[in-house]
UniProtKB/TrEMBL annotation:
<dbReference type="Pfam" id="PF04298">
    <property type="entry name" value="Zn_peptidase_2"/>
</dbReference>
<feature type="transmembrane region" description="Helical">
    <location>
        <begin position="6"/>
        <end position="24"/>
    </location>
</feature>
<feature type="transmembrane region" description="Helical">
    <location>
        <begin position="141"/>
        <end position="162"/>
    </location>
</feature>
<keyword id="KW-0472">Membrane</keyword>
<dbReference type="InterPro" id="IPR007395">
    <property type="entry name" value="Zn_peptidase_2"/>
</dbReference>
<feature type="transmembrane region" description="Helical">
    <location>
        <begin position="196"/>
        <end position="217"/>
    </location>
</feature>
<feature type="transmembrane region" description="Helical">
    <location>
        <begin position="114"/>
        <end position="135"/>
    </location>
</feature>
<keyword id="KW-1133">Transmembrane helix</keyword>
<protein>
    <submittedName>
        <fullName>Zinc metallopeptidase</fullName>
    </submittedName>
</protein>
<keyword id="KW-0812">Transmembrane</keyword>
Length: 225
């Protein structure tokens, strides 16, 4: 049982990251038929949807691309900002997908935004409470830590539909606007699906860890009785 837990908690996230990097590296070498850069693709989608007030900025790092809902900015890593590849188009379109969600007040995105401060608190303080509870044998501290962690796990789960929906929006946009050809849809989906694996892996690990802690808590409760 411990071996299975170890495999999931350690190997699965590593495998997901390697899959993302490998897929990205492969399709970063293949230019899209439109030859648009990631910045140009993002701008085309934004303008087509009336999001003229959303800006695009270059940011440092590898695969550091994201949408900032507070500043209304799509930030693309240098390789995707300047790149003409299928990977650059896919990732740029995905981040613009989040801007479209923001524009339309997408339900799960609103929930995720609402959960951010609570999830941050849960991530920062849950393990402190859990360790105190486990080391000192204080079940109330352990339970409180588990509750904080459960909120963080909920955030992970809400993130899944947000990311999948952004990818679906991205595919619709890049095809309808001619950023990629119909023959390039399969390769573009591979980039987006590989990226989604990291969120699925994170959610799986979080749930498994939460279950393990709940089992520890119930075991401590039985010992007290």
């Amino acid at each position: 049982m411990f071996f299975v837990y170890f495999i999931i908690i350690l190997i699965v996230p590593i495998w997901a990251q390697l899959r993302v990097k490998g897929t990205y590296k492969k399709y970063a070498k293949i230019n899209s038929s439109s030859s648009l850069t990631g910045r140009e693709a993002a701008r085309k989608i934004l303008d087509a949807n009336g999001l003229f007030d959303v800006y695009i900025e270059e940011t440092h790092g590898v695969l550091s691309d994201h949408y900032d809902p507070q500043a209304k900015v799509v930030r693309l890593s240098s390789e995707n900002y300047h790149g003409h590849s299928l990977a650059a188009a896919a990732i740029a379109a995905h981040e613009v997908g989040h801007a479209l969600q923001d524009q339309q007040a997408y339900f799960f995105l609103r929930i995720r935004h609402a959960l951010v401060p609570v999830a941050n608190i849960g991530s920062n303080f849950s393990w402190i409470l859990i360790m105190i509870g486990m080391i000192a044998g204080l079940t109330n501290f352990l339970l409180l830590g588990i509750i904080f962690m459960a909120v963080a796990v909920l955030f992970q789960f809400v993130t899944l539909p947000v990311e999948f929906n952004a990818s679906n929006r991205a595919m619709d946009e890049v095809v309808s606007l001619g950023i990629i050809s119909n023959e390039e849809e399969r390769q573009t989906k591979k980039v987006l699906n590989a990226a989604a694996l990291t969120y699925v892996a994170a959610a799986a690990v979080a749930v498994l860890e939460l279950i393990r802690l709940i089992l520890i808590y119930t075991g401590m409760q039985r010992n007290e009785d």
